[in-house]
Amino acid sequence: EAKRDGRNDFHFFSKQIQQKAMVRHRLETNMQRALRLEEFHLVYQPQVNLCSGQIVGVEALVRWQSDNLGIIPPCEFIPIAEETGLIRPLGEWILRTACQQAVTWQHTNHPPLRLAINLSVCQLGQPNLVELIVKILRETGLPPQLLELEITESVFMKQKESATLILGQLQQLGIQIAIDDFGTGYSSLSYLKNVPIDRIKIAQEFVRDIPEDPDDVAIVQAIIAMTSRLGLKQIAEGVETIDQLDFLRQHGCHDMQGYYFAKPMRAKQLMDFLSKAATENLNTLVEGNYPAP
Ligand code: C2E
Ligand code: MG
Ligand code: MG
Ligand code: MG
User: ipTM of the assembly?
Assistant: First the structure.
């Protein structure tokens, strides 16, 4: 196949690039419209403590249901929102909406929940980010201690100094910082020594094949051991099976999140889920029969 006609390859690829650019352009113009038309909404996925079985937090995840284009997954539109700068108004909408929502959960009989929100690297470069977050917390009345911001390691590759500064300011306010998809970025571990972090999220790609894959077993064990020694907490992402859950609990992982317990859901549905969890025996809520700790 190395002997294929180079010219045809060129035409093939240039056509692909053209098509990609068209799709991008269409997403971009539709996204601007979508913000005005309120086509975005948030879903929330519970996070569970592996010792108590209690729901201790939720992660907010954005969804786009476009009139023109149908359902578009965040892995497709977030990168374009980042490249076009639309992530700033969209990110602000996400922060405000999720915080507003989280305040209403504090009025249920469920114990306080932390709210985790994903921050894109671009947002961290936004000059007024700290002020914006302070303003949103003040407007909504959400205590900063209940807010957790998730960022990926990639932020420590290019903007390590400024990111460290901003994260420090956010932590000073009482906000918690989590590293999303821990271990999958290309950054060195050195940031763990001087960046203010509360929690790391063990990436789904390491969780997927435990306990069968010995490499993943070694990696997850080492991540938990190392980050515990550094005084950090862990939450495992993408937990889908009881075997994964048992392994994580046995190895001292603090929290977990994944389809085994619950999929991301609309605010209203989560509200029902929470009030049930607060009143009923939690074990009966858990698909697949979560064992008593
Ligand atoms: P993430 O922050 O690492 O989110 C975890 C993703 O894993 C979510 O996908 C979630 O629905 C999915 N997930 C959770 N449990 C399971 C499971 O047990 N099995 C499997 N297979 N998947 C599970 P989603 O919602 O499609 O989001 C994908 C990515 O898009 C997120 O990864 C995050 O990087 C980005 N994203 C989503 N919402 C936002 C947002 O509000 N702001 C920003 N900046 N990025 C967002
Ligand atoms: Mg996340
Ligand atoms: Mg993740
Ligand atoms: Mg593997």
Answer: 0.97
Q: How far apart (Å, rounded) are the C-alpha atoms in residues 182 and 224? A: 11
Residue 199 near residue 176 (C-beta atoms within 8 A)? yes
Pocket test for ligand 1, best of 118, 123, 243, 263 (most atoms within 8 A of CB): 118
Distance 54 CA to ligand 3 centre (A): 21
Q: Is 258 in the pocket of ligand 1 (CB under 6 A)?
A: yes
| Distance between CA atoms of residues 204 and 235, nearest Å | 10
Looking at the DSSP bridge assignments, the partners of residue 115 are: 58, 147
Q: Find the ligand nearest to 44 CA.
A: 1
- Whether ligand 1 lies within 6 angstroms of the CB of 74 is answered as yes
Atom of ligand 1 nearest to the CA of 73: 26
This prediction's pTM: 0.91
pLDDT digits (tens, 9 = 90+) for 70-127: 999 999 999 999 998 999 999 999 999 999 999 998 887 788 899 999 999 999 989 8
**Pairwise CA distance, residues 151 & 179, whole Å:** 5
Q: Whose CA is nearest to atom 25 of ligand 1?
A: 61
Q: How far apart are CA 254 and CA 84, in angstroms?
A: 37
